[in-house]
Automatic annotation (TrEMBL):
Name this protein carries in UniProt: Helicase (SNF2 family)
Annotated keywords: ATP-binding, Helicase, Hydrolase, Nucleotide-binding
Lineage: Bacteria, Bacillati, Bacillota, Clostridia, Thermoanaerobacterales
SUPFAM superfamilies: P-loop containing nucleoside triphosphate hydrolases
GO molecular function, one term: hydrolase activity
Organism for this UniProt entry: Syntrophaceticus schinkii
InterPro entries cross-referenced by the UniProt entry: DUF3670, Helicase_ATP-bd, Helicase_C-like, P-loop_NTPase, SNF2-like_sf, SNF2/RAD54-like_C, SNF2_N
Length: 1097
């Protein structure tokens, strides 16, 4: 068997058939039964060997907190049509069964499964629990079809939020049922089809009998979405209605049929009671009303509105078809309120141009006034627009005219009239002008003044487009970035930057403002003239622009009061990035800065690189070029007091860059303590790396039972350059850390504060520090929801409060896929997040082909207790043994210590739970998350076959991926198959190997991470194992991690080998037997348990 087949591993599936959802599952089979004798002509489907019983499905849901009403008693068995080979099904995942041979093509055959039938509310609960996860709970993996339905739920939710649904009533099994149903118009239909293209076959692979499914993915998705919409709308209606009130006066049975229909639309069952004849009549009425709506969506054309500027001549009805490739009306027409070169004298005159115009109009003849009104009139014309060719427009006048023959499908006059009347009736809900135009009998459009055109552009057009109508607007309005809006521009002047002078972000800087409309800077006189025009749309130098009288007055008042002002450099930075509300809520279009302020903003925006900072003199190491750039970037932001997140890919040296910064600031005279918070599992690594690269820095480890408290801690912290502690203690002892003013705070593995409500996240935000850093190897830009907590720690207030962040960024980006919101968020956060990947061209040449590092892991309390018990047992036996017996005792003790350091379950051999009991496993989990986030693969070596089995089980249950395991009991055939699977596209991310089985003869270059979970204490053997990944054909840099338990025999043996590195191969060439030559006292010292070995979680 290629994979560890644990019965608790379940792959969940959710299939849809005939309006119902069926939850079923697959689990590895102990053995697959074969049919005996000659197969019958029409064989009855057998129970799938991978079938998961309803009891186990129900248990899995219960653990996830999902209540199922029908549960284990739901319905008969169903038939799953699954790929099969030789009368055996092929599992949907490598977690279930081995892959079929490449030479054989599976056939689709029927297999019996026992699903649970889920109610719509239960489906929503399940999909909500599955969203964003690979596992529902440990050991229960979410199948690809379930993940697809999660996307369908989001789609249905967007329809419900936009109100794109209609009520209905239907007769079902002799009863009448009220229901809600989605309406797919415009882009919604396109999105439905695009989503359906991604639907896995498992979504519709179930049938009630041995008849193959005959389903069409868009149809299935449409029905599934309808089911969700009905449930979502009822849920919302129930929330809004609250607890139903008792009827007073008129009995419930005497309410009108329409009231009962509305009540049924809110009720969970939707059942509608009443007189049959009355219900039949209601059904007919609702059906007719709905038919009109669907007439619009089913026609080969759609109704279209085109807004035309003043000055465009009426086109009439000379031609039945207009071919318009470009947007109409752009730049045409010169009359109406105009601000331009020809009007500059009027604008700069003593009296506003509007007053002159008004005086002039008093003397004008009625005929002249009529011409002026025509020149200032906007026109909305009606068209039919073919869906297959949107550039083909049919004027409504031609469609009304029975004498014109329209040669296309659906072009009959009767159908067109019905369609247009229906469309106009629907559009009248959004536009009173449309409703008024219907009274003409054959409406072809309507006219508007400038205020009406503004209302149409701003409010009516978006509603009409959302409802599925075609809307054509002038190009100056629709083209991105061309809408000329009122904005302000800032100018900052500052002297050139003086090298070595430092930057004071509290320095006050002079700031000048300008007001612009579009690209044109306006004078106060022009602003005053615009304010007096009282028109929302004016022509500015030949271009129509939007003008808000209130905004104009606000801008004018602002300019008069604050044409020049003073601001701190820090506030100017925030303003330039959009991190604070703009002055008077006016849009800040640009900020032009010169001198050191301009230099600062250019560096923040990435237009200019940070000034190179030479490595500190006391730094005992060599920074690679990209690390030098990262260190300079960290130094730049810490100097100006802004928080920075170094999000480099795993293995690029975030630790060394941070230590270089600490050493540099220390040498510059910044001697205040820096608090470094990290997971318990890496405290020892930070301590070791600091001792190696920055030995001059005094380091305090605030961890363990002997750590200082209160005043003693404050005094101790002040005497050290770096204080290292854990997230666990940050959450528990936040008040203690708040008593110290830190020079800086560094959070390693900062994803630990992604949930802003946790104790540790709140404590991190409350710390006082001159600068803040965050280190993480995960791509933070991909997790919009996590950004607020990170940025609120780094630069408080930059993204607003949580509610503002949700309103302006989270919902627009994740729900509405708003590109502008995503760009704005990127603009705000980009200056403070630096992420480089190992594959970047600027990085890859700087990296060595192979990087090795030691990972020091603490023991859990349970491990420490077991370790102490082994010491006690061995010490007593050593005193009474000698010769071969003594050697055997020492080798046995080494094995026990290794087992304890690996995991208590390996030492106890009790098949107990694995999570949270081993420091090594906790660290492996943390690093594996980063590997998965980067889409990379890893080899994990152990010398113990039983530990490999435990690791395989744990990784499969935790991450939901298949995990290969090669040990001495694997045949050559299976071994070759494992290699092929791992090396292939889409192969598993983890491959566990025992040192003996996987140390030679394998080519596993798909992996670029190698873990030595326990040590062989033979460098030659370990290097040979590492070379399984580091071979010809490796396209990436290989990172090797050697796990050790701090303060235990593992660390001290490693130190002994390091001290005798030149003799290491001779010393350990025979394995671990050299340790048996140590004296009893030397061995006791070797195995002693030191205080720093024990971690706190």
């Amino acid at each position: 068997m290629l994979f560890y087949k644990e019965k608790q591993m379940i792959v969940l599936h959710l299939s849809f058939f005939a309006g119902s959802c069926y939850l079923w599952g697959e689990t590895p089979a102990e053995r697959i039964p074969k049919r005996r004798g000659r197969p019958p002509k029409n064989p009855k489907p057998m129970l799938s060997p991978f079938n998961v019983s309803r009891v186990k499905l129900g248990d899995a849901l219960a653990v996830a907190g999902i209540k199922v009403k029908r549960g284990q008693k739901a319905g008969p068995a169903m038939i799953a049509w699954m790929p099969s080979l030789k009368d055996q099904p092929v599992g949907s995942s490598l977690l279930v069964s081995e892959p079929p041979p490449a030479a054989q093509e599976p056939e689709i055959r029927p297999w019996e499964v026992t699903p649970i039938t889920l109610l719509p509310d239960e489906v929503i609960a399940l999909l909500t629990a599955c969203a964003g996860h690979r596992n529902l709970v440990p050991g229960v993996v979410i199948g690809g079809d379930v993940s697809f339905w999660v996307m369908a739920l989001r789609f249905a939710g967007s329809l419900a939020a936009a109100g794109r649904f209609l009520p209905g009533v239907k007769q079902k099994n002799g009863a009448f049922v009220a229901f809600w149903e989605p309406v797919f118009l415009g882009e919604d239909m396109e999105n439905l089809v695009a989503l359906a293209d991604r639907m896995p076959a498992a979504c519709y692979c179930l049938t009630p009998d041995a008849v193959p499914p005959d389903a069409h993915a868009p149809t299935v998705l449409r029905s599934f979405t309808a089911m969700l919409i009905d449930a979502l709308v009822r849920q919302e209606a129930a929330l809004q209605q609250g607890k139903p009130k008792k009827k007073r006066g008129k009995a419930a049975g005497n309410t009108s049929i329409h009231e009962r229909w509305l009540a049924a639309l809110r009720a969970p069952s939707g059942q509608l009671e009443g007189d049959t004849a009355e219900l039949v009549k209601l059904t007919s009425q609702v059906k007719e009303w709905r038919r009109k709506v669907y007439t619009l969506s089913a026609a080969p054309y759609r109704f279209c509105f085109r807004l035309e500027e003043p000055g465009i001549e009426e086109s009439g009805t000379e031609s039945a078809v207009e071919k318009r490739a470009e947007q109409p009306g752009a730049g045409k027409g010169t009359e109406g309120p105009v601000i331009g070169k020809s009007g500059e004298k009027q604008l700069n005159a003593e009296k506003p141009v509007v007053e002159k115009s008004a005086a002039k109009k008093q003397k004008e003849s009625p005929k002249k006034k009529k011409a002026d009104r025509r020149e200032e009139t906007w026109m909305v014309r009606y068209f039919l627009q073919l869906r297959d060719d949107p550039s083909l427009l049919i004027p409504a006048a031609d469609a009304w005219d029975g004498r014109v023959k329209l040669k296309f499908k659906g072009g009959k006059r009767g159908l067109l009239r019905e369609f247009m009347l229906t469309a106009l009736g629907q559009a009248a809900c959004f536009s009173p002008q449309v409703e008024e135009s219907i009274k003409s009998g054959v409406p072809a459009g309507f006219t508007l003044d400038s205020s009406g055109a503004f209302e149409f552009l701003h409010n009516q057009a978006p509603l009409l487009r959302q409802a599925g109508f075609g809307v054509m607007l002038p190009s100056w309005w629709t083209k991105k970035g061309s809408k000329a809006r009122l904005s302000i521009r800032g100018k900052v002047s500052s002297p050139p930057f003086q090298s070595g002078g430092g930057l004071d972000m509290n320095q006050v800087v002079s700031f000048d403002w300008e007001v612009a409309l579009g690209d044109e800077v306006l004078s106060p006189q022009e602003l005053d003239a615009l304010a007096r025009l009282k028109s929302p749309l004016v022509k500015l130098r030949g271009q129509w622009v939007e003008v808000d009288a209130g905004e104009i007055k606000t801008a004018l008042d602002f300019w008069m009061k604050k044409a020049s002002q003073q601001m701190t450099a820090r506030d100017i930075v925030k303003l330039s990035l959009g991190a604070v509300h703009q002055p008077e809520n006016l849009t800040l279009e640009s900020l032009d800065a010169s001198g050191w302020m301009g230099d600062l903003l250019e560096r923040l925006e990435g237009e200019k690189s940070c000034t190179d900072v030479p490595p500190p003199q006391g730094f005992q190491g060599e920074l690679r070029p990209y690390q030098t750039r990262g260190y300079a970037w960290l130094n730049f932001l810490s100097e100006i007091g802004f928080g920075a997140c170094l999000a480099d890919d795993m293995g690029l040296g975030k630790t060394i860059q941070s230590l270089a910064l600490l050493q540099h600031r220390y040498e510059q005279g910044e001697r205040g303590p820096v608090l470094l918070i990290c997971p318990t599992s890496v405290i020892a690594n930070w301590e070791k790396e600091a001792a190696r690269f920055t030995p001059e820095l005094p380091v305090l480890i605030h961890h363990g039972p002997s750590r200082k408290k209160d005043k003693a801690f404050k005094k101790d912290a002040a005497e050290h350059a770096v204080v290292i502690s854990s997230y666990a203690l940050l959450g528990r002892e936040g008040d203690l850390f708040q008593k110290v003013h830190w020079d800086g705070v560094i959070l390693d593995e900062a994803q630990n504060i992604k949930n802003p409500q946790t104790q540790q996240a709140r404590a991190a935000r409350s710390l006082e520090a001159d600068y803040r850093l965050a280190l993480t190897g995960t791509p933070v830009e991909n997790n919009v929801g996590d950004l607020w907590s990170l940025m609120e720690y780094l630069n408080p207030g930059f993204l607003g409060n949580q509610a503002e962040f949700k309103r302006f960024f989270l919902v627009p980006i994740q729900v509405h896929r708003n590109r502008e919101a995503a760009d704005a968020l990127k603009h705000l956060t980009r200056p403070f997040i630096l992420r480089r990947l190992k594959t970047d061209r600027s990085i890859i040449d700087d990296l060595p082909d192979k990087m090795e590092m030691k990972v020091f892991c603490p023991l859990t309390q349970e491990q420490a207790s077991l370790y102490a018990a082994v010491i006690k047992e061995i010490e007593a036996a050593l005193e009474e043994s000698e010769g071969i017996e003594r050697k055997g005792l020492i080798l046995s003790a080494l094995t026990k210590f290794k087992q304890v350091c690996n995991h208590p379950a390996q030492f106890l051999k009790d098949n107990s739970a694995l999570a949270g009991r081993s420091g090594k496993l906790i660290r492996l989990t943390e690093m594996s998350e980063e590997i998965l986030a980067a889409g990379e693969r890893a080899l994990i070596f152990t010398q113990f076959a039983e530990m490999g089995k435990l690791l395989q089980r744990y990784l499969m249950e935790t991450f939901g991926y298949p995990v290969l395991y090669l040990h001495g009991g694997v045949s050559k055939k299976e071994r070759d198959q494992m290699v092929d699977i791992f090396q292939g596209e889409g192969g598993p991310p983890f491959f566990i190997l025992t040192i003996k089985a996987g140390g030679t003869g394998l080519n596993l270059t798909r992996a670029n991470h190698v873990f030595h979970f326990d040590r062989w204490w033979n460098p030659a053997v370990e290097n040979q194992a590492t070379d399984r990944a580091f071979r010809i054909g490796q396209q990436k840099n290989v990172q090797v991690y050697k796990f050790l338990c701090r303060g235990t025999i593992e660390e001290r043996i490693d130190e002994m080998i390091e001290r005798k590195v030149q003799l290491a191969e001779d010393i350990v060439g025979s394995g671990e037997s050299w340790l048996t030559e140590l004296s009893t006292e030397e061995f006791k010292d070797l195995m002693a348990l030191r205080e720093e070995a024990i971690g706190e979680w």
